[in-house]
Amino acid sequence: MCGIVGIIGNEEAAPLIVEALKRLEYRGYDSAGIATLHDGQIDRRRAPGKLRNLGALLGKDPLPGVIGIGHTRWATHGAPTENNAHPHASDSVAVVHNGIIENFRELRDELTAKGHVFATETDTEVTVHLVTENLRRGMDPVAAAQAAVKRFDGAFALVIMFRGDEDLLIGTRRGSPLAVGYGDGEMYFGSDAFALAPFTNRVTYLEEGDLAVLRRSGATIFDVKDNRVERPIVLTQAGAALVDKGNHRHFMAKEIYEQPEVLGHTVHAYVNGVTESVALPKSSIDWSAVTKLTMVACGTSSIATNIAQYWFEQLAQLPSGTDIASEFRYRDTVLIPGGVSLFVSQSGETADTLAALKHARAAGQKIASVVNVAESSMARESDAVYPTHAGPEIGVASTKAFVCQLGVLASLAIAAGRARGVLPRDAEIRLTRRLLEMPRLIGEALKQEEIIASIAQEIAKARDVLFMGRGLSYPIAMEGALKLKEISYIHAEGYAAGELKHGPIALIDENVPVIVIAPHDALFEKTISNMQEVMARGGKVLLISDKRGHELAGDNVWMRIEIPECDPVFAPLVSAVPVQLLAYYTALAKGTDVDQPRNLAKSVTVE
Ligand code: M6R
Fold first, then answer.
1. Which of the residues 59, 185, 339, 498 could staple to 292 if both were Cys, CB 3.0 to 4.6 A apart?
2. Distance CA 159, CA 171 (A)
3. Which domain holds residue 53?
4. How many angstroms separate the Cα of 370 from the Cα of each of 233, 307, 342?
5. Closest CA to ligand 1's atom 7
6. What is the largest CA-CA distance in the chain?
7. Atom of ligand 1 lying closest to residue 303 CA
8. How many domains are there within the chain?
């Protein structure tokens, strides 16, 4: 899961490649590297760690050449060392790779038997040796690449540069995205159009199995059967400017504070405040006729689907299920005729979710997606796209995209309820009014920042933390735990409050803070009973509730965070804020890398 770039240009390529890689660091930041050709020879600079380490290396030891390839890595096979960093190279070719070559062991054994010497622990290196072997056997570069690709199992995007030809790059994709950029006498490859935005807005998204041969004069594209094909050139909307942090220390903080604004943009794209009704973008999906809704996603996006399931059941009486994308297609999931599969993703590129989408399509489902990146693979492969308008989300921990996903999913549930004739008009009016109030209420919730920052000092001392909630607050408990884990590295779990007594309550002692999310809703009393069970066993409780909830909950809780009162249906949108801020300030207290936490990547493009 990595970012790849290729440039055939007319000026020094390495600084341009670094610019493009900065825009791909969301795909991984374990190591980075560049290879260029100068005097026809392959030369490389590679550095472990963030891209800035490669920048420093290039400052000391520049890399000349007007053609080059670059890579930012999220390690799959082999530790994130300089030696395992891409580009990988032989004396004949250099390769950058995103994805996994699953049959690399078999290929490595075969090539080793032919005398190839492997220098790294990566799966990628087989691509270098196989293309090299094909060249040695007399194939030209295109034939060598085409023949090699046919031997690979797995998902990959590759860009290959050939010694001695400063006017040739070959790129190919299967499962992982790759775009071709068209400049003025210059050509580009990039994992996405965003990487290419500083150079061109004219791009072709390669299709599954395509192989593109780039020369300064243009691109020749072959399909999976090696037939020459034409692919459309589209004008991308990806902006060339890199997003900055504004006055915030971290992107995550900026993104948390943007939530009232971007949720406002998102909700207004679906809810008409004058007619007090929801209008969906036109598509081939008729929500009145949907037999079953299957929602599939990963991570925080998956938590958004867990919340949405309550909404689709309650507001639309629509049989609904949720699934984690990495599990979905390996079970015998029953996808019934007339069903819609809905995929939720910030990036629209998550490999597991994309694979699940293809699986559902093959099973005859209508495909809908809720995505934040409008030109993403998922958007391009859907029958109906319901965009979130969160703007670029840079922090690895998803915050504003999540809240905007909830805004879209709530709108969809209301629209489905109306279409199915189960949501009366007066209910639609009430719900749309309440939904339109949510940006303001999130603004109110953000005012608790100071108290949350001081509570975080205590949470930072813990080794384990439990979150619990019932109903719509249960997924928020899971989200709180996920946020805390990923950026503060504190072990945390989110439980349904009623489930604690079936095992996890054994963990409770004075060293394990328990964070209870309990807005004053229909399940409040039950959650408070579960909270009492925790306190009776010496557990320290941090209660997140509204004014009424705090009044009713008694005095014995350890600490409190107040959220604004709101319609219980939309409470997850406000409860999300304190758990995000708590994770953020706990991470600050622990001194972790908030925006780029260890071992993670913003977009997970390998299975
Ligand atoms: O781009 P996606 O929404 O498909 O990403 C899914 C997950 O990888 C993502 O939500 C991840 O869990 C976040 N880092 C959580 O904050």
1. 339
2. 4
3. 3-247
4. 25, 14, 7
5. 299
6. 81
7. 10
8. 3
> Would you say residue 325 lies in a domain?
yes
Q: Extract the residue ranges of the chain whose pLDDT is less than 70.
A: 1
Beta strands across the sheet bearing 340-345: 320-324, 293-297, 340-345, 366-371, 384-385
Q: State residue 46's pLDDT score.
A: 97
Query: Which atom of ligand 1 is least distant from the CA of 600?
Result: 14
What is the distance in A from the centroid of ligand 1 to the CA of 298?
Answer: 6
pLDDT score of 241: 74
| C-alpha to C-alpha distances, 542 to 156, 195, 531, nearest whole angstrom | 46, 43, 10
pLDDT of residue 242: 75
Ligand 1 cavity residues, CB under 6 Å: 298-301, 345-347, 350, 353, 396-398, 482, 486, 603-604
Q: Which residue has the tokens 């992982």?
A: 176
Q: Which helix (H) or strand (E) holds 320?
A: strand 320-324
> Catalytic annotation on 602?
yes
Q: State the Cα–Cα distance between residues 545 and 552, nearest whole angstrom.
A: 10
Q: How far is the CA of 304 from the centre of ligand 1 (A)?
A: 11
pLDDT at site 1: 63
| pTM given for the model | 0.89
Atom of ligand 1 nearest to the CA of 396: 14
Q: Any catalytic annotation for residue 404?
A: no
Alpha helices (H) along 393-424: 400-419
185 and 243 co-located in one domain: yes
User: 346 CA distance to ligand 1 centroid (A)?
Assistant: 7
- Could you tell me if 403 and 421 lie in one domain? yes
Please indicate, yes or no, whether residues 311 and 288 belong to a single structural domain of this protein.
Answer: yes
If asked whether residues 241 and 274 sit together in one domain, one would say no
Pick from 252, 256, 298 the residue to mutate for probing ligand 1's pocket: most ligand atoms within 8 Å of its CB. 298
Both 457 and 409 in one domain: the answer is no
CATH number of the domain that 21 lies in? Answer: 3.60.20.10
C-alpha distances out from residue 491 to 303, 487, 497, Å = 18, 11, 18
Say whether both 123 and 154 belong to one domain. Answer: yes
| Residue 567: both structure tokens together | 């319609």
Is position 152 within any domain?
Answer: yes
Are 218 and 281 found together in one domain?
no
pLDDT value of position 75: 83
